Amino acid sequence: MTALSNFAATSDAHYHSTSYPPAISLRLDAPRPPFLPATDLTLPPYAALSAAPVSAFRRNCRRHLPLTLSRVSKQSALHISVLFIRNTVLQPLTGAVGEMVPLPLISQIPKFNQVSRFCVAMKKQEETVVASSDRYEMRIPHVLSVAGSDSGAGAGIQADLKTCAARGVYCSTVITAITAQNTAGVQDVNIVPEGFVSEQLKSVLSDMQVDVVKTGMLPSTGIVRVLHQRLKEFPIQALVVDPVMVSTSGDVLAGPTIVSVLQEELLPMADLVTPNLKEASALLGGMPLKTISDMRHAATLIHQMGSKNVLVKGGDLPDPLDAIDIFFDGKDLHELRSSRIKTRNTHGTGCSLASCIAAELAKGSSMFSAVKASKQFIERALKYSKDISIGNGPQGPFDHLCRLKSQEQSSYRQGYFNPADLFLYAVTDSGMNKRWDRSITDAVKAAVEGGATIVQIREKDAKTRDFLEAAKACIKICHAHGVPLLINDRIDIALACDADGVHVGQSDIPAHEVRSLLGPNKIIGVSCKTPEQAEQAWLDGADYIGCGGVYPTNTKANNLTVGIDGLKIVCLASKLPVVAIGGINQSNAAAVMEIGVPNLKGVAVVSALFDRQCVLEEALKLHATLVEATTSNI
Ligand SMILES: Nc1ncnc2c1ncn2[C@@H]1O[C@H](COP(=O)(O)OP(=O)(O)O)[C@@H](O)[C@H]1O
Ligand SMILES: Cc1ncc(COP(=O)(O)O)c(N)n1
To answer: What is its EC number (predicted)?
Structure first.
């Protein structure tokens, strides 16, 4: 049920310029790397390139690229390459100004439904001009919450909106019921007629690019049925069902008649169902659930109702026990444990957990990673807001946005790691900078201007204060180019300068400790040489692994070389994206990328950039080499 398969299913769809959304104008006055530095542009600064939004592009475009060039001589013949997520290049295309350019390979682009931005490079006679849709076409992951409104704003639609906001995900809403509710309980419920729920669903699903649907309170069988219909009509990437039946306060939100229709209509199309103990028991005809072993059994039985994955939540387990949830993916049972926070503010934890999972799925996480990250989010939010007081009743809401409030608002990435950023990974080296008499900021600036897609600062000998100042300056440079900056090993520096993340080795602080220090929104990379280390990095909550040394290198003493074969073995075993490292340069980068393993996302280089006279030139060349190597794979 992916957007991509939906896309393929509409193979007859043609693009009609009249029905197309208005074009966006991209100015060429501030071109970005990785293509060419600004000085190489020859078109006047206000020459405009128009491109339709990627979202519309994704939905409608099968045969034509909705791209037009204006304010350039009408007769100019153009070669146009379209670059998706920086590193996937379509074959060069030929078109003329004002003409729609045919784009025959679109349905074959890997992960096309995840395209968030694109760049356009054109050759006009001998000149190359570039423009990027980044600033205008920032695709935001999107969750649709189909749930009830909670006037107290601790649960329901309001919890989902706040959770998605906290996770950097857009949330649209279809309201199924309006509850009069506060910290004392639910005073009244007004159910929205199913016909109107159906209308709301159509409004959102027919227009917006919803990635994941999350359901909460579905108070009538008719509402479940119209939802089922609409989801068949408008396929989405994933469906998360929180089978809300009874509120924490004990009030009934959906009667027992709902159980059979959930089982028949919704669970078979669900990717995840998240019952609490009472709901799991109701789904299983009143089976008593008191222990962890009961929960494990229940998870396997509920799985048979058709949901691909099941999470039985243990918030209602007896008090001395940790907050333990059971996750079942149809094969393995996992026990997810967090400490039980002593607080009365647990109203809305279930809704928030499910919407956080939906948000993480919309960002591209795997199911298990999404569930683990969401459990951490709930634990952290409960901890942060355990003592707040909202209302006089026994069950208060927690503060979903506390984490955002405690963070600097200008944070660049807000929890979104894009594996494509590993494409050209620049790792600095203080020794080399000294040798070439350049400052770290000059080195980093040249690297990102030349096309580096992520930067890691590795300062083994610098004084802490100097390291911190350098890191702050480099962050400014990187963020101005939309490039994340990581710190090698020094979590204290990363925290102090609010870097985008850290990279750690096998003898540094373990990644799970780093994750709890940095929180869910930072990038964590781990150096791995073996499949076992790669597995551990995944379990520890890392975002990517660095694998190497692929070739022998002088930058790291006593570093064992794994070779191309070792790299391939680790890539095949790794559940995380991989960047290759160690002795990679102009002459061997293509061979590395051509091993043909999809989760190898790029190469990390040190000497090939920084032990050279002109970092900018080396970065441009290396980027071009990588683009060529990855293009030839399409
Ligand atoms: N006091 C608590 N401390 C830590 N985690 C909790 C606490 N109460 C609930 N949770 C967690 O919150 C999530 C929601 O669980 P639960 O409260 O059982 O759902 P619901 O809100 O649907 O009843 C689960 O991951 C659960 O383990
Ligand atoms: C509108 C609405 N939806 C869901 C819940 C369940 O949340 P909780 O179990 O935390 O009371 C609720 N109380 N109200």
So the answer is: 2.5.1.3
